[in-house]
Please model this.
Amino acid sequence: MNKSIVAIAALALACVAGRAAAQTYNARRMGMGGVDLGGTGANIAYRAVPAPPAEPRGFSLPIGLIQVLANPPQLDAGKPDFSIFDLANLLYTVPWNLQLTQPDPIASDVNVSISQDSLVVNLGDAQKLFPQQSGKIGAVLNGPSLGFSVHRVFIGLLPVVEYDNDLTLNDALHGALANADPFLPNTLYSMTDKARAQLAAGAELGFATPLARGGAGPADRSGFYVGARLKALRGLAYGDHNGSIGFTTPDTLFTKPVDVRYSGQLNDAGPDGGGIGVGVDDIGTQVGWKVRQSAVYSDSATGGYVQQVLNERAPLESRIPTVLTVNAATQVGRALVAADLVSGVNNTQAHLGAEIWAGRVALRAGTYIDANKLIEGSLGTGVRFGTLGLDLAVSSHSRNVTQQRVLEMGAGISFYR
Model:
C-alpha cells in the first residue's frame, strides 16, 4: 500500500473516531491539570499582570520521542505488525510526552456473513470507532509573536493557522459498520467530508491594563485586568473541500459490481490569492481570497476521477473562528489556585489546578474536562536547585482512537530568577 494512502487513511480514521483534544507540553501546567497560567498567551489581559518574583521560564523535554524512536510504528501495510490504529493514535497525541500506558489494541476478528441476497459485516471491537455523531477536529493556532511593548501597548508579528474537518457517515453506512446491520437493496451508503485549512501572516496591535488593583504594592498581582488586540491578517495559503463518496446497492445484492461514486468541490489559493482581513481578538475576522474553484467527480468511463477547473480566481471570504478563554488565579496561603475555561473549534474544555511550595519542592495537582467529556486528573512535582529546576508530571488523557483513558508523563527544565 502506498505510504501516502496509509497517511490519508490514518487521518480519516482519526476524524471518524471523534474529537481531537488539546495536548499540554509544559510539565508544570500538566501537573496542574493543563490550566492556563497566563503570560502572553491566549488571554491578552495577562500582559498587564505583574510577573511574580519566582515565576520560572523554561522548556519541556521531548521524552516521548525516545519511546517512538525505540519502537517506531510500522509504515509498510504488507508487514504483519502494521496497524493503521497506531498511526491514527500518533495523529491524536504528538509523541512529545512519554506514554506510560497504551489503549487496548483493536484486535478482534472481523466476521463477514454472506448468503443469497444478504451481507453482514461485523467489525467486532472496531465498531466503537464509528460514533453516531460526526467526527470533528479543528483548531486555531496563533504562533509566537515577535514584537515589543511600550507601557501598556504592544505590537508584533505572528503566524496564524486554522483547520477544521467534519466527516459524517449517513445512517445506513453507520448502521452497517457500527451495528453490523445487514446491507439492504436499493439503499445509499455514503460518507461526506467538509474540510478547511488556512495560513496567514498576522500583525497585532493591542493593549492590556488593570481596572482594579490590590493595595499591597506594585508587586501585588491581585486585581481585575482587561485587554484587547487588533489583528490584521494577510492570507498566504487556503484550501477547502466539500465532497461525498458512496454507492447504491442494486435491487438484488451481488447481481452487479458496486459502483462507488465520488463528487466534490475544491477551493485552493496561494499567496497571490490571499487578501487582507481585520478583527478584534478573532471576533468577526474574515480574510478575502481569490481561489481556484474546481469540481472533482468519478468518471464511469475510465474508472478514475476528473478534476475540472470552474474558475481560476473566484472570490471567497473565509472566517477565523473565535476562541474564548476565561481564566483566574489566586493565592490561597502558600497555594496558587488557577482555573480556566477554553471554548474553541468544536469543543469546550475546563481546567483546575493548584501548586504549593514546601522549601525547594513544589507539589502540584489538577483536573480537567477533556474534549471527549471525560474527567481527567494529574499530579506533578518540581525541584529547585538555585536558579535551575526540574519538573515532572503525570496526567491521564483520552487522546486516542478508542477514547480510552491512559497515562502520560511530561518533563521540563525551569529557570528561576
